[in-house]
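Mods, move this if it's the wrong board.
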Amino acid sequence: MKFSIVINSFNQSNTIERTIISVLNQEVEKEVIVIDAGSTDGSVEIINKYANYLDVIIFNPGTDLGQSHAINQGFANSTGSILCWINSDDWFEKDGLSQIVSYFQDNKNPLTWVIASCNLWNETKKEVFSVRSVNHVDLGIILEYGSMFWIPQQSTFWRRELFELCGPLVVSDHVTMDVELFMRFSAISKPILSKEIVSSYSFHDQSKGSVFRKESFISQNKLRLKYARAFKPFFVAQKLNEKNIPVHFSRAVRSDLQRYVKHLRG
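Not the wrong board. Structure tokens:
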């Protein structure tokens, strides 16, 4: 069983070495694929420093179409049976991936995917301020993605067959590409949930979650509109009440609006 780990990079020289080292130190069978979108801050030099230990390096100066495109490129150049990606400001905890192996060994279903837990890291204070774990997932909860519910992408892993069926990432989506992918996963496969802390998610002033608040709010609600319609037959198949779809949708939008207004007010 081989993990294909894609690291997408763009001008994060302060953190990418930490990310690369954390991936290389994972004691599982793996291949490491780094995609850089034309960094000019020293990231390229750091990547090249580890070139002998990386399986694939792709530099895209001037031709990159965004993060989703880069991640898709990474998976297109991968050969492993278990896929994941990690951003160049996040990292895997020691032996993080070793804690995931058994879930795939024990579940041979080609549509298996696993959501583990992650530390939430304050990059300014250099400390963990919370732990993110997912306790329950169904299609109704997925429609509330981004309000009171979210999946830690850096602690989520899936079989290649699931990605080939549901992927690739939508190239035009630069903010909520993981949300849409996990929505598609959820329609056909229930994830395995783990309390194991596999990764750390870095919060800082330049992270996408901080910089693109408005774009994220708009994109998430466009996805809800799209999948509120698409999920109807899957609700029935999964023995959920489709009449609850508007309830999930309105509750999520209301929560998002409250959070966004709070953000604007500072």
